[in-house]
Amino acid sequence: MKVSSKGEYALRALLILGQHQGKVMTIQEISEKTLVTINYLEQILLQLKKLDYVKSKRGASGGYFLHKNTNEVNIGEVIRNLEGPLSPMGCASITKYEPCPLEAGCQLKPLWSLVRDTIAFVLERTTLEDLLLNRIALLKGEDLFVKEK
């Protein structure tokens, strides 16, 4: 899984709109706060609108606003909707599985599955509210592996 600039910028825009929940923000304001060009931001906000994360208001006082509560915006869902599967390899993907001719005895597949599960574990349990309130706990690398006894 690789988060593209589109995914990152979409999360930045959602964070800004979440910080100003209930307020309509112009695309210019969002652009200035996210450092994303207006042209690219328009494309991203249109996609977020189609996915029902944001709404728009037309007119002189128009712009965009967050359509959902911040605790309802799941980061894993946002990333999947914008970027596709969370798995680093198609053979380990649950949603977009791609067979591999070497898969039967592959010693790498368990690693790719662990990476997928770890990414999903973190992203699926994170909401926009968690990001806004800095509720992200750091995991220690050794906590992620099962130790043999």
UniProtKB/TrEMBL annotation:
Keyword hit for Mitochondrion: no
UniProt-listed InterPro entries: Tscrpt_reg_Rrf2, WH-like_DNA-bd_sf, WH_DNA-bd_sf
Keywords: DNA-binding
PROSITE patterns for this protein: HTH_RRF2_2
Keyword DNA-binding belongs to the record: yes
Pfam families in alphabetical order: Rrf2
Record protein name field: Rrf2 family protein
Lineage: Bacteria, Bacillati, Bacillota, Bacilli, Bacillales
